[in-house]
Amino acid sequence: MKITRWERVRKGLLRFGRKNIICRFLVMPLLVIVMFFFHTAAYLRANSKRLATLAMTFCLFVIYSSFSFPLFISGDGKGIRQIVRETDSDVELAPESELSAEDMAILADEDVLEQEELAEGYGSHGADGGEQYDADEILASLEGRGRTGGAKEREDVSESVVESPRETFDRSDWRLVLINKQHAIPKDYTFNLATIVDRLKCDERILDDVVDMLQAAENDGIHLTIRSPYRTHDYQVMLFQRKIDRYMKRGMSYMEAYQLSSQAVTLPGYSEHEVGLALDIVCDSYTLLEEGFGDTEAGKWLAANSYRYGFILRYPKGKEYYTGIEYEPWHFRYVGVEAATYITGHGITLEEFWEEL
Ligand SMILES: [Zn+2]
Question: How far is ligand 1, taken at its centre, from the CA of residue 170, in Å?
Fold first, then answer.
């Protein structure tokens, strides 16, 4: 019988396997490796065009991104601007504008521009929006107009009254209107302004509660100062535009400046101050809109008692995630006594409260 060459090789291998038993165990892994490379090679061959396209795409990506990511072309950390300058290109780029620590600190601060206005001398009873008056002046002025604060202490509204906020409160209630970075002032929102004193104004429906709160604080020996509760839309626009101008003077593009400004200043149409429901309250011994106010007697008194008069601490510490605004111990928002009692009692924010409605 004729034996083929392959047959001979096979027999030879079998004989080899019988004599060297250990080799049998090596054959399987060897086969696996051989098959792996065989299949990989086959796959690459079958998909060569597709893979070539992918490789080209990647190359193009690297080439293009080297124009936008300095990382690809500069290792000195100075980035593309440096290189453009060195190669004497006629492309004009804005100079580097790094934020100082001061700038970073003011980001996401609802009332920060207010603070700047005052610091620049627009303050106390000055230009539109920057006024501040203490409780004595306010109460005297109101008394002169025949309005007196309810000197009687307020009783607590029992919390058990509210079992289900969904049944008790209504999102369409004007007192509960939600205004923040995501929620603009509703188009159909209307209100009338009342004068607290001089150009200091608020929604007329909350004036009684404001007066009662100031009077109650006075009775407890706390002398509060109110700063620019109501801001006109134009004033908010002016604050915003000013901030943009400042950033642009430092060489930022309009878009960059706009973006940073919108972090630092509340966008016009998105501020509670524009509907006269927010008050910035400080005291005679601490007139700055700064975190430290929270540690003063007045700050503590407000945090503990303002709910009795329908106010909540709008931007509490540790709730930045919900409010999007840093801790502001001076910024109080009117929501009505019942809602304020519920919100303060449960230690939540207006945003969280809305979730429950
Ligand atoms: Zn405020």
Answer: 24
